[in-house]
Each structure stands twice: as C-alpha cells, then as structure tokens.
Amino acid sequence: MSSSSQHTRITLASRPMGAPTNDNFLMVSGAIPQPENGQLLLRTVYLSLDPYMRGRMSDADSYAKPVQIGETMVGGTVSQVEVSNHPDFKAGDWVLGYTGWQSHAISDGTGLHKLDGLTQPSLALGVLGMPGFTAYMGLLEIGQPKAGETVVVAAATGAVGSVVGQIAKLKGCRVVGIAGGAEKCRYAVEELGFDACIDHRSPSLSAELAAACPQGIDVYFENVGGAVFDAVLPLLNTCARVPLCGLIAQYNATELPNGPDRSPVLMRTLLTKRIRMQGFIIFDDYGHRYPEFLQAMGSWVSSGAIRHREDIVVGLENAPQAFAGLLEGRNFGKLIIQVNEIN
Q1: Is 306 exposed, middle or buried (0-12, 13-18, 19+ CB in 10 A)?
Q2: CATH code at position 166
Q3: Does one domain contain both 209 and 239?
Q4: For residue 263, what pLDDT is reported?
Q5: Are residues 192 and 233 in the same domain?
Q6: What is the mean pLDDT of residues 44-57?
Q7: Domain count for the chain
Q8: In sequence order, what are the residues at sequence separation of 6 or more whose Cβ sits closer than 8 angstroms to the Cβ of residue 42?
Q9: For 174-197, what is each residue's pLDDT tens digit?
Q10: Phi-psi bin for 286: left (phi > 0), alpha (psi -120 to 50), beta?
Q11: Is residue 289 part of a domain?
Q12: Residues 242, 238: Cα–Cα separation, whole Å
C-alpha cells in the first residue's frame, strides 16, 4: 500500500501488443503536491480497474483519447480530502473522481462528487457507480426486458453482468448467465438468483446454452464477444435486443480471428430477425440520468434486492498484475485497488 509520505503514480510506459504486461507500466515516485488557493489535495483510497482501460492503452481511434506514453493511467477513484483550500470541501470529505492510478491528486473540485452518507464508499465504483449505471441503462433503456422473456448476460458475476441479471429478475425475466468456472456459475445461481449459468470454458457451450434457453433469447447483454457471442447468435429470437457495452474477449487481439468471415451470418440474422443491436457509452449517452439510476439502485441495494461482491487488491503496485487478470477473467466481483488506508 502506498506510503502517505510520498506521491506514487503508475504511468503508461509502452503500448501493449496483445495482453498487457508489467513492462507496459512504470511506477513513479516523488513529493506529494500541495494545493493552491481554490484547490484540494486528494488522497486516493480506492481505484477502480475496468476493461475499458485496455482501450486507453492503445492509440487506435476510439470514443476517448488514449493515454499518452508517460502519462498517469486513467481510472475512477474514491478519495478522501486531505487538505482543502476550496470553500465547498473540507478535510475528511469522501469524493468520487477520475484521478487515475496514483496515491494523491490535486483538484479544483471540477467533476468531483461528494459521497455524503455512503457507509461503504467503494460502492461508488461498482454497483452504485459506472458499472451499475451501465447495467441499469443498457438493460432497461436498450434491452427493454418484459416479464416472461429470457435474458442472457455474459461475465455474469462481474461488476456489470451481476447487476444486469439481478435487475432482469426483478423485472420478471428468466435469466441465464455465462461465467468462467463452476464457482462463479454457482454464485450466479445460488447468491444472485439467476435461473441458470453456463461455464464459457465448456467445450459444449453452445449446446448447454441452447438447453438453458428453450424459448430462445429475447435480450442478450453483450460485454464479452468472441465465442460467447457465436453461441448466442443462433438463439436470438425475432425482435431480440442486444445492448452492447464491451467486447472484453477481443481487447487483447492483435489480428482478426481465424476461420470464415462471420459478418454475413451476423448481418443476415440482424435483418431477418429484426434484431436491435446498439452500442452505448454510458456517461456520454445517459449521464443526465445518473440521479435517476442512483435513486433506484440505492433503494435496491439498501433493501437487499440487489447483491454485490467486491474483489479488493491491496497496494497500488499490484494494479498492473490485477488489471491483466481482469482481462483474463481472474477477478471475482468488482475489481478495486485499495491504494491507501482509510483515515
């Protein structure tokens, strides 16, 4: 865990070819910066690790600018105000921000959100934060599930997928998850209330998914791609909806997959079954509805209707290895780095 006597940050040292390694990151240490008038010194307590960060490590065109070589890696953070020269904040306040992979940060208050009354501040990075918001808007706005329909979600025990499935159950749907390994599948069914969960590592994935979805699939929440989507595609019903928020199976790819071009089959299925497949970037598209989400999700979480799980790794120095594991599905729940102790 970072020492409070120095400022440590992790920068992008080089752009990865394929899966990121420790060599793509560099930890830099120095003096803790001091805030000027109108500024705050933030002490990072929790750092969120999320799949989108892999895209920021690439210089390919995307919806957001890439991290430049030598820059601090980006990421959502929950911090405590250490020193305040700002009239709207005081020392000890908990705030949600986007200050990245570092132990401390200077802020003028722009973009910070106070976490008043949140007894577990780390939840602002998970079920009550960007992942939960992604699940909520993607499923309800694009997926539009109706009682009795079948909803399938991959990465079913992850920060997004676990919330998607639970909301779908609240809406009266049959929910089938896809996850990596027997332990995660048991958790999805026994703890989260899914009707079934299929191990994506199974050699009979397609057959098992078909058996779990005898009435086909009405909503598929896509956050993985790859072989999982190949198994889902033929099971999609007429007028199915496919919210698309990520393609984690493809993030480390360096070339197109082997085998025949699947795009004609995809396009024909979309056309003949009149399927709605829509990508979205949560805060770009739905940021104005965050208060609505927070009210609904806060109520579900406090009542126990939505359950959540965190996978907390201690120490900023462990972020690169934990991030590589995230892309391989080694985490179990919302992956968070505890950077500093709580004051």
Answers
A1: buried
A2: 3.40.50.720
A3: yes
A4: 83
A5: yes
A6: 95
A7: 2
A8: 77, 79, 80, 81, 82, 95, 97, 99, 104, 105, 106, 107
A9: 999 999 999 999 999 999 999 999
A10: alpha
A11: no
A12: 12
The CB-based long-range contact list for 309-314 (8 Å cut-off, 24+ gap) reads: 309/157, 309/162, 309/187, 309/191, 309/333, 309/334, 310/122, 310/126, 310/334, 310/336, 311/335, 311/336, 312/46, 312/122, 312/336, 312/337, 312/338, 313/337, 313/338, 314/1, 314/338
- My answer on whether 144 and 277 are in the same domain is yes
| CA–CA dist 245, 168 (Å, integer) | 17
In a domain, 329, yes or no: yes
Whether the CB-CB separation of 99 and 2 falls below 8 Å is answered with no
pLDDT exceeds cutoff 70 at 274: yes
279 and 158, same structural domain? yes
Do residues 142 and 276 lie in contact, with contact meaning Cβ atoms separated by under 8 Å? yes
Q: What is the model's pLDDT at position 224? A: 82
What was the pLDDT predicted at 97?
96
- Domain annotation covers residue 142: yes
**Are 53 and 179 part of one and the same domain?**
no
Task: Please report whether residue 182 resides in a domain.
Answer: yes
Tokens found for residue 233: 């595609």
Res 4 pLDDT > 70: no
pLDDT at 343 over 90: no
CATH code for position 77: 3.90.180.10
Give the range of the structural domain holding residue 85, as residue numbers without chain letter: 7-126+309-338
Minimal CA–CA distance to 186: which of 175, 174, 199?
199
